[in-house]
Design brief:
Layout lengths: L9 H12 L3 H11 L13 H16 L1
């Protein structure tokens, strides 16, 4: 089962580093592409600030460098 965590695809985001380390480049690029379309303007339920910071803000800041 995929954890959507607020409808933002947490499982896909969490798996990015594993895909990269495992050398699954095609799957990594597909997952990375998915993250470009996460709609942070809506959420399914309450947003946990800690979970948001460790997953999504670090993801975005890491990709920016």
């Amino acid at each position: 089962m995929i954890s959507l965590r607020n409808g933002w695809g947490a499982t896909i985001v969490d798996g990015l580093s594993t895909l990269l380390i495992a050398g699954l480049d095609e799957e990594f690029l597909a997952a990375l592409n998915y993250t470009l379309y996460i709609d942070f303007t809506t959420a399914d339920g309450l947003v946990n600030p800690f979970e948001t910071i460790i997953r999504y803000i670090f993801l975005r800041s890491g990709l920016a460098h």
